[in-house]
Amino acid sequence: MMPEAVLCQAQAEMIEWQNSGMSVMEMSHRGKQFAHIAAMLEADLRELMAIPANYKVLFLQGGATAQFSFIPQNLLNGKTKACYLNTGAWSEKAIKDAGAICEVLVSASAEETKFTTIPERARWVIDAQAAYLHYTSNETIHGVEFQSTPENTGLPLVVDMSSNILSREFNVSDFGLIYAGTQKNMGPAGVTVVIVRDDLVGHASNMTPAVFNYAEQAKNQSMLNTPATYNWYLVGLVLQWLKAQGGVAVIEQRNIAKAARLYQAIDNSTLYRNPVATTCRSRMNVPFILADESLDAAFLAAAEANGLAELKGHRSVGGMRASIYNAMPDEGVTALIAFMAEFERTH
User: Fold this and answer.
1) Which residues are catalytic?
2) Exposure string for 98-113, b = 16+ CB within 10 A, e = fewer
3) Least C-beta-crowded within 10 Å: which of 68, 250, 262, 314?
4) pTM here?
5) What does the pLDDT read at residue 315?
6) How far apart are CA 8 and CA 3, in angstroms?
7) DSSP track, 10-70
């Protein structure tokens, strides 16, 4: 979901951006107008996340999925192994793609609990000779989220933050590399943010294409090739909106409140159930199942009729899933809770 204010501003500026005589989507990425947009984009992200000066901020293409392969190509630096935590579908995809590049040690896996938990830290097996430790901070499909940053790993920490970046406060200095597709909390699909510590840049293998070589992109301000200019602009508008809301600390409190209300409604119900352990429930993605699966189709049809869309769970797990990213207003959660209560009463 995009903030309504952002959509309205983009609508107002569609034909002409700030008396430039052209739409942003018509601009040259080398022109002074777009240079201003790009500079503001990075500056606002650095401000919102308090990104230290010794980190590069890149805006790339290919989605977070492309980074599954290009992270090991950039970070192995002569090593042959990387450690990964497996907490759900996106972790599994990252592990599979990295496995084509290097040896992958699955340091811990929640597969035995059907990805409804996060393995206890004491059970993790970490190879000190590995290049890095990778994890996914929020699993959108299974609704599992790390509530704190893993500590004392001894390795550079790499995180796929696609679905909870800017939804809660993180200390960037705890990480070697953060990456995220923008289509959850930052804007439309088409831009991938990579925040990488300086000492990890410049070690890409000779087989890494220049466009996915962090050092080459950093040298070229993420414009080694033509970037997705209009999407950069939209991401920039979302960052400005987030600043106007009071920043990440304020939006985190809203997210806590929204998720708590929805989970409470589910937990107090006899029709709905959330399968995830309470210690690692996602604030962004709330999956729930109906006690009687034969009601699923009726639930979705009635929800759609009441203006509640995109509630069907992922095909791999079934059930329902409510995604309540930053831009989802409190009123949206209130409407969902009211509908769920009425559906339970009548069914």
Assistant:
1) 90, 160, 184
2) beebbebbbbbbbeeb
3) 250
4) 0.96
5) 84
6) 9
7) HHHTSS-STTSSS-GGGS-TTSHHHHHHHHHHHHHHHHHHT--TTEEEEEESSHHHHHHHH
The Cα–Cα gap between 330 and 155 comes to: 39
Closest CA to 137 of 166, 164, 110: 164
**Run means of pLDDT, 10 residues per run, the chain, 347 residues:** 97 96 96 97 98 98 96 96 97 97 97 95 94 97 96 91 98 98 96 98 93 96 96 98 98 98 98 97 98 96 96 91 97 98 97
Secondary structure element (H or E) that encloses residue 343, with its range: helix 330-346
CB distance 87 to 65 below 8 Å: no
List, in order of start, the domains of the chain with CATH numbers: 4-245 (3.40.640.10), 248-346 (3.90.1150.10)
* Residue given tokens 């993180």 in the structure block: 170
> For position 152, what pLDDT does the model report?
75
CA–CA separation, 300 and 16 (whole Å): 40
Other C-beta atoms within 10 Å of 65: how many? 15
